[in-house]
Specification:
Elements lengths: L1 H9 L10 E3 L1 H5 L2 E2 L2 E6 L2 E4 L11 H6 L6 H7 L3 H8 L3 E5 L12 H16 L7 H25 L3 H26 L7 H15 L4 H13 L16 E3 L3 E3 L8 H11 L3 H29 L5 H7 L15 H7 L3 E2 L3 H7 L5 H6 L8 H14 L6 E2 L1 H11 L6
Parallel strand pairs: 1-5, 8-9
Antiparallel strand pairs: 2-3, 3-4, 4-5, 6-7
Helix pairs in contact: 1-6, 6-17, 7-8, 8-9, 9-12
Length: 408
């Protein structure tokens, strides 16, 4: 039965066969260098060396899986594998020899098979289909809050109490906009990827003032190698604090400055369209609030550590390690924790209180996480993996407890 399910699940990945060359895992694992990168997807062997610079998710994502089985991460990050097949076909160089296992021998084959069966079950349950009405209301929330803030300051002036109140409204709008662009960046709202990417540019650029490409490049690395040093950029950003037992890590308990973001973009690649969208945000904000607060005052209105707390509370207290080449399920569960569900927690975190489910299924719409959580928890129990779920205040406290003092 398991073999039949595997064949059924892999059928859509099968490519025309012309007496493909066969490889053993030892041979595949030798091709893990910057200039020589092979990887395995559903037993097919691909040479992606010449493709890395054109990969929409960034070159590092492919670099990190060179010489490894990438079946589960490939399926996790691509909502429509049929389209990706068009790009994979010319990269195909062979397949694993019949006597070779589906993944490296150090991985738990039964756990891998059980997780893939779980994904097929969730696809049958339509858990990857988005409720567009849910996301429309989410976007409407952002628009209404921003408009309300301007109307209030225009009508009542810029006194201290008014300023505090509209700052709160604008921070909520900013955070909820950031959460929305996160869903768009994972292609989890629209069935057509191009609409997700277009709307992400609009929301991330015009409503957040940041580069969508810059965010995607960093965030996808975080997803594919969560809490793995030094591959996860979220735990490798500078020697300010020491987290865990591996390395000094700076924890950004405030939103990254615009200056830092544009420096990184300029150093790597100039994203003209992203810069144009981001510029429109600052132009709009200065026109709207500049007459009341000036340039400095307008920028101060937007400062908040909210997003950083949402993201860091699920990872910083969890396991951090160097590369161990574990299976996808174990890697994500050990490096991630959840926060208990409530109406407030769901809204405050944008449903990212279900970070375990999000990391296992990044393209799943966030409103479905709570529905699949019991199945994920059951699979964890079956294989002896701890499914961590904690109160939100404890999660905030664990951020501070995970930090030691400044490095000397």
């Amino acid at each position: 039965q398991g073999r039949a399910n595997e064949q059924e699940g892999n059928a859509k990945f099968d490519l025309p066969r012309k007496s493909l060359h066969t490889y053993i895992w030892q041979e595949v694992q030798r091709h893990n260098q910057e200039t020589d990168q092979w990887l395995v997807i559903n037993r097919k062997v691909y040479d992606v060396t010449g493709w890395v610079d054109r990969h929409p998710g960034g070159r590092q994502v492919l670099n990190y899986y060179a010489g490894e089985d990438a079946t589960d991460v490939f399926r996790a990050m691509h909502p429509d594998p049929d389209i990706v097949l068009l790009y994979l076909k010319p990269l195909l160089i062979g397949e694993l020899a019949p006597e070779e296992p589906n993944q490296e021998r150090n991985k738990n084959s039964q756990l891998v098979e059980d997780f893939q069966e779980l994904r097929r079950t969730l696809e049958t349950m339509n858990m990857f289909n988005a409720n567009l009405g849910f996301f429309f209301l989410h976007f409407a929330q952002v628009l209404i809050l921003e408009a309300l803030a301007w109307v209030i300051v225009w009508h009542f002036g810029s006194g201290w109490l008014i300023t505090i109140f509209i700052s709160f409204l604008l921070v909520v709008a900013q955070v909820q906009g950031a959460i929305l662009q996160h869903d768009l960046g994972h292609l989890s709202i629209f069935k057509k990827s191009k609409w997700n990417r277009l709307m992400q540019k609009v929301v991330m650029g015009h409503f957040e003032g940041l580069s969508a490409k810059w965010w995607n490049n960093r965030h996808f690395q975080h997803h594919v190698k969560t809490n793995i040093y030094p591959k996860d950029p979220d735990i490798d950003v500078g020697p300010l604090f020491v987290i865990g037992e591996l390395q000094p890590v700076k924890v950004c308990l405030e939103i990254l400055s615009t200056r830092e973001i544009f420096q990184e973009v300029a150093l790597r690649k100039v994203y003209t369209l992203d810069i144009a969208w981001a510029s429109s945000f600052y132009i709009r904000y200065f026109i709207t609030f500049g007459p009341f607060y000036g340039i400095f005052g307008t920028m101060v209105l937007l400062e908040s550590p909210w997003v950083a707390y949402i993201t860091q509370m699920s990872h910083i207290p969890m396991k951090m390690s160097k590369e161990e080449n574990q299976d996808w399920f174990s890697t994500q569960v050990l490096a991630t924790c959840n926060v208990e569900q409530s109406l407030f927690n769901d809204w405050f975190t944008g449903h990212l209180n279900f970070q375990i489910e999000h990391h296992l299924f990044p393209t799943m719409p966030c409103h479905n996480y709570h529905k699949v959580a019991p199945l994920v928890k059951s699979l964890c129990a079956k294989h002896g993996l701890q499914y961590v779920n904690k109160p939100i205040l404890k999660a905030f406290g664990d951020i501070l407890r995970a930090l030691t003092c400044f490095r000397t």
